[in-house]
Design a protein that fits this description.
5% strand, two-stranded antiparallel ribbon, mainly alpha, single chain
Length: 163
Amino acid sequence: INAEYMGSPCVLVSPQYGVTANMERIMKGQALADQSSQTQTAKRILEVNPRHPIVDELRRRAKENEDDESAKESAVLMYEVAALQSGFPLEDINDFAVRMHKSVKHGLNLDPNAPLVEEEEYEITETEEEDEKDDEEDEKDEKDEKDEKEEKKEEAEEVKDEL
């Protein structure tokens, strides 16, 4: 286990003398590249940290139930995160976004099928309106003070130039 990967459950790397993710991106972006032919793609090697708690939990879940959808989704998400960290493009960014949203909902203990929240209507009270007016007046006062300082500075420069 490489020490730099100790904090990550997995990383995606290229062979030592192979095409890297950055080289692949540069070749695809060449202005004169022949778009009809396949450009050389980087070989991807997934290195897994077996001592990482996420990997250990996924291994345990797969051992208990090979059809665990949550474990499968988590494994795919781990691969995609490793690809992004290594500079590789994702094949379908929308699928990645859907998986991330599911993961965030799960982390926040939200129902994955929950509908959108109703928009709340509210009235602005008089005190809120007064606060807004006070803020506007404060901003105007600050601007006036700045303008006054600039005028004094200009006057001082004029007097200095006259001397």
